Amino acid sequence: MSNVYQIQLSRTKAEWFISVLIFCPERWHSDGVIYPKPAWLAEELLARLARWAVENKKREFKSTLSLVSIMSYSRTYQELKEKYKDMVKVWPEVTDPEKFVYEDVAIAAYLLVLWEEERAERGLAAKQSFVDLGCGNGLLVHILCSEGHPGRGIDVRRRKIWDMYGPQTRLEEGAITPDDKTLFPGVDWLIGNHSDELTPWVPVIAARSSYDCRFFVLPCCFFDFAGKYRRRQSQKTQYREYVDFIREVGLSCGFHIQEDCLRIPSTKRVCVIGTSRAYPASGEAWMDEQRTRYIRGRQCCPVSPPGSKPSPPAPQVAADSSGHQDSARASGAGAEDRAAGPWLPGFHPREKAQRVRNCATLPRGFVDQVVLQVAELLLGGKKLDPTSSQEGPLKTWNRGESLSLAEVARELDRETLQRLKRECGGLQTLLRNSHQVFEVLNGRVHIRDWRQEPQKARRPGAKRSPATEAFKTRLCWFFTHHPDGCVLPSTSCPFAHGPGELQPPQSSRKHKQTP
């Protein structure tokens, strides 16, 4: 009963008020999915509820958990959360453990309920098998295998956490290139959970693996069959358009397509599911020709998927002596007509080594020039002079104005913006990394005022040990460049006011002292 909260709607004569009440805030436990953090309830949820109450627009996506029983999902999620919550404590990756653990627990709960309902509908006893393409940290594979589903995960790069799962969790390191060698004929489901460049290929691989293979895709990054996805419509959000593209791929592969919205701590939480085929097994050869046409057509212009207009009837495949269609022979017929090698030239799997995209590879001079240019914009075009440094108390200190990221970008030349986008992910990444000079809040850029930064408090009379002392290993940007100098005196500034205050890093000092 500790995680009980209440949303109240009250009214005065002229206004409506909405509020949230937490009954036992001191005992509140947040998992980031079912039970959010109290700060999120107060700062995010109330604002959204107020906005949703007055807006009148059509929803882009379905409501959450529209394809499964919410009661079954909630029960399964609570059981899995309790069973795997300790993963947060031992998470060895650099990623946020709470987000990734509880997100994969939620996805696993959804799949387990979906598959349980499928078994009941089809009258099956055996649990479905699966392959997770681009499995990443492998936690989803670990949970599904631990819950009795035979399966494995494949990813181009091994993760540290793989060694913690044990032998029952099958995880393989290797690149996946869509061709006739990467088919999974004995598998019930293919999973693409944030599978990047493999996302549009998952329905194709499932369709060509066997007539009975289904798929589950949770799109995130926007990839086409070869390279980045290019927008074709401006009336939709980019995410809605991309989800529609994955639906179109599924339809082109001959699947009945369903869509649902998951309960996960992510803005990309819409899944696309291919459950059964819209054509008989006897039409596999003809259907595979349509898939090939569609995939090749994506290289130049979009091709309408089968089903968008009347199509010629599929050819019939001879039945065997028992009267059943030879679906295995039908599924292999299309492969005979496909050229050997990759299904589409130009596809490149992810590199095994992750590329650094945080400004570390940009020349220092280039970064410094962009920082100076943006600072001049915020200070009203006042030219920054390295000789303007000064010390002592300031009567006034120009913090400048705030500008949106779009306004800042408009003042930079195109070549600079392209270089930033290519090397470090964009202008915002560089400005956030230059945290000594800037702060980026809600899409707006400000000059950082170090007077407002919290200072670490020390007990009166406590001695400062060398281990806790702040060694000034970098020059103060404001002392060097700002027209009014640094807003803090040298004794309070964590950066060096001139080369004379610079000290070697603590690690190098210890190294020198080692006999």
Outline the structure in words:
The protein is an alpha/beta fold. The protein contains 15 helices and twelve strands. The strands form three sheets. It has a seven-stranded mixed beta sheet with strand order 5-4-3-6-7-9-8, sandwiched between helices. Strands 10-12-11 form a three-stranded antiparallel beta sheet. Helix 2 crosses helix 4 (97-122). The longest helix is centred in the first third of the chain and has 26 residues, at 97-122. The chain is globular and about 80 Å long. Mean pLDDT is 82; it is low at 302-333, 456-469 and 507-515.
Q: Kindly estimate the percentage of residues that lie in beta strands according to DSSP.
A: 5-15%
Count of individual beta strands: 12
Radius of gyration (Å): 29 Å
Overall pLDDT: 82
Question: Distance N terminus to C terminus?
Answer: 60 Å
Strand numbers in spatial order across the main sheet: 5-4-3-6-7-9-8
What is the chain-wise order of helices and strands?
EEHHHHEHEEEHEHEEHHHEHHHEEHH
Protein structure class: alpha/beta
What kind of sheet is the major sheet? 7 strands, mixed
Shape: globular
Poorly predicted regions: 302-333, 456-469, 507-515
The number of helices is 15
* Helix content percent band: 25-40%
